[in-house]
TrEMBL record:
InterPro entries: DUF6078
Pfam families xrefs: DUF6078
Organism field: Bacteroides stercorirosoris
The name this protein goes by in its record: Uncharacterized protein
């Protein structure tokens, strides 16, 4: 029996792919989600097959079905910094994300992708933090 909710957290209006002949179809989230879409879904957003037919080489819409590690929250990192370093780090993070997003990231309401984690680590190092800074928690999910 086909499992309908294999990908329960698919973003709203996530573009799907209909190209089952693609050499990377078996590992592409866009293709795998398309195969799992329930029969009662009224409409989908798809990547145009005409556009795909013109592609030569690597598909710019490919998304690996391998899960990645997202970071959740950085309150502990900030709490372990001396006051002056913490102030510089907070300023750097607000500049990088915006004030509102910074607070959501700090509390763990917004997850950090692997690339964002690296950028945040750089900000902490620029502020004088030493050693590896561990985020509050880690979660594995697809990189949509």
């Amino acid at each position: 029996m086909k499992e309908e909710h294999y990908f329960p957290n698919v973003p709203h209006n996530y573009p799907l792919c209909l190209n089952r002949q693609c050499p990377k179809a078996s590992t592409c989230l866009r293709q795998l989600v398309e195969q799992e879409v329930a029969d009662n879904v009224e409409y989908w957003v798809i990547i145009s097959p005409k556009y795909q037919a013109k592609l030569k080489g690597a598909c710019p819409h490919y998304r690996s079905s391998k899960k990645v590690q997202y970071a959740k929250g950085c309150i502990n990192i900030l709490d372990n910094l001396p006051h002056r370093q913490r102030q510089h780090a907070m300023s750097g993070l607000v500049e990088y994300f915006s004030r509102r997003t910074y607070y959501r990231v700090r509390k763990g309401e917004r997850l950090l992708s692997p690339a964002e984690q690296r950028d945040v680590q750089k900000i902490f190092k620029q502020c004088g933090a030493t050693g590896k800074q561990e985020f509050d928690a880690y979660v594995e999910d697809y990189e949509w």
